[in-house]
Amino acid sequence: MSTITTGVEKQYSDSQKLAARARLNREYTIAEVGWFSWVARQLPLKGGNRILDVGCGPAWFWAATVKELPEKLELTLSDLSPGMVQEALERCRPLPFEAVTGQQADVIALPFEDGSFDSVIAMHVLYHLPDPTHGIAEMYRVLKPGGFLAVTTNGAGHMRKIYELTTVLGSPPQDPGGAAFGFEKAERFMQAKFGNVAMTQHPARLRVTEPEDLFLALTSYPPADQASEAELAEFRNAIAEAFQAGDGVIEAEKKNGLFVSRKVA
User: Fold this and answer.
1) Which CATH number applies to 8-160+171-206+255-262: 3.40.50.150, 2.40.30.260, 1.10.1790.10, 3.40.30.10?
2) Angstrom distance (rounded) from CA 21 to CA 253
3) How confident is the prediction for the chain on average, in pLDDT?
4) Which of 75, 113, 126, 171 is the most exposed place for a label (fewest CB within 10 A)?
5) At what angle do helices 229-245 and 211-218 cross, to 10 degrees?
């Protein structure tokens, strides 16, 4: 079955489909510190670091956090989608980085020399790979000794009450990203390659009050984005019933984690 973790080229040719899911998280997450800022504060970056962002998407992270980061960072934006790389470059080049470059690239065959970067960032990317260990090995290769890899992903049970609604469309009642590459796999695979890993979880929950925003987010990826009109009508009814049962609100626990491993010098 096609899910959010498959059909990458079609899903991410540009940021349109991703934007629906991003809006749901941006508008309805309840947290003391927002996700992007929280991640930025955890990263052990230093001024002048050379950074590779693997699967950069539209680079919303860098635009949101540039004022919280060290100065004189050299940023390389890479993504399998040329459209995403172009959008990321347009967004980041006006920002106060020391340098911003872009490169269309596959994480399992990065076009960079060994030891090219002080840090590699891969945010919610590795669950798209059939074998995430290949991507981790490539990112290890391009890191300098002493450099670090930062990976984010979802854990089991992430937004379960939300994903349970998608069973109407034939999807399993769980976050597909967390199922494909969750906390346990992230910790195990990174420990195996680096010999060390530190994990932290972002404390947050989702409180959705607008049914249409939920509908648009959950129909922005397979199989829902290929559903028939009758199936979509049934899905809308399921969402409406869930909101009615919750007195106009659907709440769900979020499980977003950050894993950091350092390449031993």
Assistant:
1) 3.40.50.150
2) 16
3) 94
4) 113
5) 140
